[in-house]
Amino acid sequence: MLIIPAIDLRxxxxxxxxxxxxxxxxxxxxxxxxxxxxxxxxxxxxxxxxDLDGAFAESASxxxxxxxxxxxxxxxxxxxxxxxxxVADVRGMIEHGAxxxxxxxxxxxxxxxxxxxxxxxxxxxxxxxxxxxGRVVTRGxxxxxxISAVELAARVAASGVARIVYTDVARDGMLEGVNVxxxxxxxxxxxxxxxxxxxxxxxxxxxxxxxxxxxxxDSVIIGKAFYEKRFTLAEANRVAVAAKETVTxxxxxx
Length: 254
Hints:
This protein has 254 residues and is of the alpha/beta class. Helix 9 packs parallel to helix 11. The chain has a single domain (2-241), classed as Aldolase class I (TIM Barrel), CATH 3.20.20. Strands 1-4-5-6-7-10-11-12 form an 8-stranded parallel beta barrel, surrounded by 8 helices. It has helices spanning 32-41, 52-55, 63-73, 87-95, 105-109, 111-121, 149-158, 180-190, 203-211, 224-227, 233-241, and strands spanning 2-10, 13-18, 21-28, 47-51, 78-81, 100-103, 125-132, 135-138, 143-148, 163-168, 193-197, 217-222.
């Protein structure tokens, strides 16, 4: 399983939201570029960078430029998402070196555009499905859609998408545990590779994800647990690559 540290950007700063609410952003000290370099030095094999201002459709944000600086500063792949709602948006980030882009809102609003993006960029386009109570949320997690996450997963898979990033928004930033059951439902419905996101708080949860639904969840994005020092990236990587570890309830590896 691939462990992907998250760097969420708000007005150029590294932050973590609580349940996707923009009014509840906790700012973490440090230059985002240096934070990215720190994750790389600690053993990260990919980074997940999000433009939260773009997700909230806020203009005049420095986040895209900060993301580009991160891409230039590290040698590992960078996955980028947040506010990508046109072919030009996606092409721009890919041309600036993003290894993969994650699109969300446009998937619900324009299935034809998704098909076009997959045709143009192939596996470099992933779909982010964010849900609350099993129903999809868009526009910076502020608009509740009628479609369920499982239904949307099947739809985007039919468009040729090779990867889904699934986030249970109610768990995101809460450190109360990832929604393994719903993530598996998305994986089984789509039949494509799935990256889990939202709520990871212990090493035991990484192991649970790794062995859930016959290994269909092959990666996990982790943010707040690293920033709050619940465990280290080295510890997470150890659990991720081990055939089987014994992990205590406190999250320690035996």
